[in-house]
Description:
The structure holds two protein chains of two kinds. By secondary structure, chain A is α+β, with helices and mostly antiparallel strands. Chain A contains eight helices and five strands, in the order H-H-H-E-E-H-E-E-E-H-H-H-H. By secondary structure, chain B is α+β, with helices and mostly antiparallel strands. In chain B, the strands form eight sheets. A seven-stranded mixed beta sheet of chain B has the order 3-6-1-13-10-11-12. In chain B, strands 8-17-15-14-9 form a five-stranded mixed beta sheet, with helices on one face. Chain B has a five-stranded mixed beta sheet with strand order 18-19-27-28-31, with helices on both faces. The longest helix of chain B is centred in the C-terminal third of the chain and has 25 residues, at about 515-540. The interface between A and B is large, with 69 and 72 residues.
Amino acid sequence: MPHKKPAPNPNEEGGPAQGRRDFLKQSSLLAAIAAMPPLLVKAADAQLDEKAAAYFEKLPLSVEVNGVTHRLSIEPRTTLLDLLREQLALTGTKKGCDHGQCGACTVHVDGQRVLSCLSLAVMQEGKKVTTIEGLANGENLHPMQEAFIKHDGFQCGYCTPGQIMSGIACIREGHAGSDDEIREYMSGNICRCGAYPNIVKAIADVKKGGQRI
Amino acid sequence: MDQHHFFDAPERDPIDRVDGRAKVTGGATYSAEYKIQNTAYGFLVGSTVAKGRIKAIDTKSAERAPGVLAVITHLNAPKIPGYQTGKDPSKPQTGGQPLRVFYNDEIFYYDQPIALVIADTYERVLHAAKLVKAQFEKAAHQTDMEANLAKAKIPTGPRFEDYKRGELDAYKNAPVKLEQQYNHPVEVHNPMELGSIIARWEGADKVTVYTKTQGVGSTQNSIRDAFGLKAENVTVHAEHIGGAFGMALRTWPYEIAAIMGAQKIGRPLKLMLHREQMFTNVGYRPETVQKIGLGATADGKLTAITHEATANTSPYEEFTEATVNISRFLYACSNVTTRYRLVPLNVCTPIWMRGPGEATGCFALESAMDELAFALNLDPIEFRIRNHADTDPERNLPWSSKFLKECYELGSDRIGWKDRKLQPRARQEGDWLVGYGMGTGSFGAFRGSATVKAILQRDNKLVLQCSVNDMGPGTATMMTTIASEQMGMPPKQIAVQMGSTGLPPGPTQGGSMVTSTVGAAVHDVCAALKEQLAALASKEGSPFHTANVHEVKVDDLVFSETGLSLKRDGSVKISYADLLQRNSLPALELTKESRGQNQPYSSYSYSVHFVKLRVHPPTGRIKIDHIVSCADAGTIVSPKTAESQMIGGAVGGVGMALMEAVVMDHRFGRPINNNLADYHVPVNADIPKVDVLFVNKKDPYTNPMGSKGLGEIAIIGVAPAVANAVFNATGKRIRSLPITPDKVMEA
């Protein structure tokens, strides 16, 4: 193993992470020797370990986002949220807390609402992800999008994509039977501008409209 | 136009939010979302101690981590010219020296940035940031307000000196008196969008930033001063910001750090704070201890108010707000004393949070008014009406308009105030006690200056340009509404371009003054546009120019979506396209600056909030059943967005009343609940039906529309309405926010 790093200091935090990297490097280099093209083995010999490690730290992922299949090579630690925002340029899905506490990052995975900040991207293999950008049919907005405009279910708009994705799921789940039920099942989506009463109106309106959503 | 209304049809159909489509499709772009090629990622590492010095900082491991481009600390930070000249890199200014990030080894508060790590991907920068290790020389920190009250001092400058009208502390000798203390904890704005910036240098002396700010102009000035640049070489974009509530009223150290970082790596840099950092590095509503003394006659006439407030600030700046000022003018009272003090603590500097000091001050004053009304055996509304200020008692001026009594009336009808009993614990429904409460709010109706450019195109499109931006209330919708009304044009033909320093200068969004300021400029530029159109229509060869008539005036014309026509004979008309073509104009462009004038009047907006709630004594749980928020904010320009703004204020007020508080661990000077799971904000299930009622009468003096501000009064007075309702339900007076179940149970 190449030794460009200082000896690990037992008092330092972050030891396990370094250990993980070293393990990955070792195991992936062993795998490389067994199965990978000679080029990479050569790279390892030339002490290009970081580059080799970076290559091996990525995993293949095939995921359908808004009807488009993406074949990607991503780090296993990448969240679905960061994949969408930083790599696929789908910034409609918002980051509000990164801890599953605010709901701004809500997307649909195989039709169910999911907090994309708590979902690792690699776990979405073969799944269908729908984000706010995938709701409208061309120029025609989704009924929930229309209802949010009609009832002014937002102000700043930052939590809105998450609210809309959650609102659709709330109806699909059968949790929009009354205003109180909507309030309860929409309480995972924080709106700091305080548009809650109008969000409830929008969801109740779509539910009443009876359209297939 | 009648006396009370600006719009021809006061009950007109409100227009939908003009940026609604962008917001519901994910098309609205916020600061961290601009697609800039080759952007690197930054992450700030914070101090783990609340006071002291950085003894050593080891960045080697971080620098060696994959993808890392740079690690900036005080040891290697580029020199910031503004730091040396002592010029304040932060506007609007507060007293003192703003924090100079990476300036030296001094630590003032927990999580103060000590390093900026930059890497090529987000995942890599997060990992590398964990590898930065620092050792500190700790000093004894102070974060406990109560323990430091003895250090309270008057802020520097004349604005915060003690105020006395009539006799000093006259409440002490009043026939009926009340003296109580009211506590307000630290509250954090926590807009849903995190503090975010993308900085990109274009050469050595030119920078563009996409940042979360409420004022692109003030951010431009801050960056200009900090980096010693020419203003025109600093471009700031912030069309949409995901809420702010005051948090983005100044340029914060994280923004300066990101610009520094982008300079160092010669690449665009994106920095998005984490939620935990939103609790420690970008301000908050300060902790405030207030004392109110009220005196009254037995028949309910206020004779004296004393209002004292002591709030925290940081060790390096004096943050001030108008916490006690409301007591000087809200009620007719001849003896008023106010005192305002600051206590420096080892925390970052506060920043105005919605309603700012007035919301904090009103919690104390309006709670005390409720207490005194009860002591006098008077209905709290009746008590307020008996002490209504018919003129401004502070400045001895008439009001420009005041429809506060109308608010009391509208709201008490809607909430069912007649069902309220004066005695607490008088209404019970099952295990629940039911109570009603109300609170008044007020905030100055200010107007600043704004420049708006109007471009009327041959395709009948009207473009409005102003650098003002929008954190949510609906600035573009307000501008569109006014232009639509003025030009007789449907909103869909009007486009607003805003939120960028390249546009004509508009104000910072804050202090409830954007509609008054920018709306007036839109009004004025449209009026000027109509004058120009009338002048063009008067020219020879125009159908309006006849043998007898050589000139048409604006008043002779009807302006519509496609052109103008003669009022008395609709068949005489011309399209905008034709008129522009005849005059060889590709478009008609006009720029107009508009500003408020000093008037011999006092201008304030008013709100009255009513709350009906239930309290469950065995568990201390509080469930709000109904909120009615009434406002005298002059003409309501954009009814739909105005209603949403009021609802939002009520929701914010519920948070302030019932749940929001930062809990500090004073042993370490750190917040314990620095996340959205532990710092509670209202969620959907906490919020009942909210009715919004506007008096909607024009103020004759504030601006051409007759509007007054709305953003602050939406929250000012909500928290006392809740506290007063809790008293009415239970007979328990809780003077320390938030009113959590434990307090209800132990009171």
